[in-house]
Amino acid sequence: MSFAPTLKYLFVDSNVLTSLTITPYLEQLSADSNHLTAINIDLSAFYKLRKLSIESNNFESISQPVYPFYNLQELSVAQNAIPGIHLPTIFSKLPRLNMLNISLSAVGTFGSANEVKQTRLKVLDLSNNTLTAEELEKVKNLPGLEKFNIGGNHFDHFEADVVLNNLPKLKTLELSDSELTCDFTKYIEGLAKQLHFTVETYVYTDQFKQKCGGQTD
Asked: For the chain, how many structural domains are there in total?
């Protein structure tokens, strides 16, 4: 499906689209809940696309649908089957990105830890994937990050100092749906107070009291 070359905003959620063609002047596209496996582009050296949401489709990687869009600021590819991503390449290809949502996508790998660096990213949602503590500890060179959602992954603790001390602007850390150890849950709550950010765990719930025999002060 293709559209008028001067179209700026396009919302085509919940259809049965299998392909789209993006024109250079399109600035925002929402095409969630379709059957997309590819995005086609007009041959152009410049694209204005700033916001792209392609949740709940059939993409198996990020590279094909988004790398041509240098000006992209917000990207959501949640609920696609993307087992491996390469954050250094994503940030290199999309240097203006300030919001990235790759939740519920079976992501298990990030790429090289030393190469992951981006100063503009403010929101990163990696929740409900298959990330281990070792992979998570690679995300430590995002000095502009304010909201970080990593709940529902495959770890019960991680080296919080390694990650969080390198996120000086962090305001919210979301760990809901994580099977954290009791000691780590208490530790991360204390660290949040020390570093002045909000952490979402289950520490003040009956579930925590039953599992760990109490709650933090």
From this structure: 1
